[in-house]
Specification:
single chain; alpha/beta; 6-stranded parallel sheet; 17 strands
Amino acid sequence: MNTITLTTPGQFDVSDTKAPDSCPPGHALVRVHRIGICGTDLHAFRGKQPFFTYPRVLGHELGVEVVEVAPNNLGIKKGDRCSVEPYMNCQDCGPCRRNMPNCCINLKVLGVHIDGGMREFITLPIRKLHKSDKLSLDQLALVETLGIGAHAIERAKVQKGEDVLIIGSGPIGLAVTQFAQVAGANVTVADTNAARLEFCKSNLGVKRTVLFGADVAENTATIGELPLVVFDATGNPQSMANAFYYYANGGRLVFVGLFVGNVTFDDPNFHKRETTLLASRNSTPGDFTRIISLMEKGEIDTSPWITHRAPASRMIADFPKWLDPATGVIKAVVEF
């Protein structure tokens, strides 16, 4: 089978590898049809992804078809189209026992810590497959990205009518935006990229956007009355440090993006506002179930998301272009 491996930063190789010839107990053999490309993959290509080693088969946003599976009590059968929950948790550590599999001490994420789905076939635990008889393979490949946003909104306990600022309008920021809207929040999106802000207005129905500059005071003045909840989805250290000035007293700050390094903040400013600081990591099985249900009912529209696509045979040539914001990439998808 064809397998694409990121051998070193900036270098993919294609190889003919042996397809799995059997399924371990509790696993299914699946055919990979769609792979969403996200910031994790782009950072890995640049050599700037934390928790990452080379060589690595990328691919954790997957739309797959079940090829072989033993009888099971999860309702997964041959021919099912599924989204893949790519977080391989041990089921035994403290966080797993507390129903926090996304924070498993021994967590291995497909395409990051272990080889992912940028290949024709892969065996996966049945419990990591989330099927839908209604969604397309394109939609199923987007569920994982949406899960990041859904989980962040749940972490912050966003309530109807709350003022929410989302910094960053890349795919993760868009996912946070959509679920903030589902929660009934008053959403403002901020970015340094005017074209992405226009995308939010035109495609997600965001009524208020703010074009950020380098000056924190000017940004704060532009925001006006400060929101109660701020999400930083940039993974940019300067943006994350600045975010401590953009929420109201008693507010909540949620870091959804991450980077390799330290975040610093002014402690008196942090204390006088009685800030709640949260991190949001990955998502949970329940998030996948809820997202698929919302998508099937048409309450989450993913049609604007995929702006670029390529067959596996052309992906290596196209991939470097997807790093350039000037190309207008929101979400690229590889067809395997």
